[in-house]
Amino acid sequence: MIRAVLLDLDDTLIVEEAAAVAAFAATAEVAAGRHRLDAAALAVDARARARELWRAAPMHPFCRRIGVSSWEGLWCRFEGEDGDMPALRRWAPEYRSEAWRRALAGHGVDDAALAAELGVRYGVERRALHETFPDAGPALDALAGYPLALVTNGASCLQREKLAASGLADRFDIVVAGGDVGAAKPDPAIFRGALDALGAAPADAIMVGNSLEHDIEGAVALGMRAVWVDRGGQAQRADVASVRDLRELPALL
Fold it and tell me: Who is most buried in 59, 139, 183, 239, counting CB within 10 A?
């Protein structure tokens, strides 16, 4: 019998990767208004340069452990004093401007002032692109009889900012982010943190998320049931319970 439901945030309840892509595109358009260049190509290059810088940074092992992506690093405020958060907070302005400086250089543009401007602009554009999937609210309303936990990888401050913008925060009894426990899915520590807070055993809980590796396999390894949110419906797997729309979820509990 299911006594608790755990849900992922990014690309399960809210749009994440597509919003990041759109923010890169909007920021690149600013550059295209100053210099003759291909904005679409610059957006792709900026994402790639950001990823390179992110993975080379001494703080990357910490970010990987709690589940912060390179594009999140471009707008996260890195609040708090745990782990490498203070170092990330100090490094963030340099990281953001350098990612765009390198991308611009690949298009023959040497403009440090513009790169710094774009480093700030990306965060503005991303914060203007919060979007909640239309099935999220109705699904959570239908699950109101269950203790609900949000279990999300990433920095606590940024994930809570996204959740607040989604309008869904009041649906959850608890929120556990990777930064809260020092571990990201599929590490069992983050699932255990949520289960302990809800007073539920793994066998009595179900995890719902869009990532097979992080959400589904991580939960199953701990002894939980899991439901994969496969919105595209293009990669159905017979061995995994799945839904294309979150409103289908209550029927599976």
Answer: 139
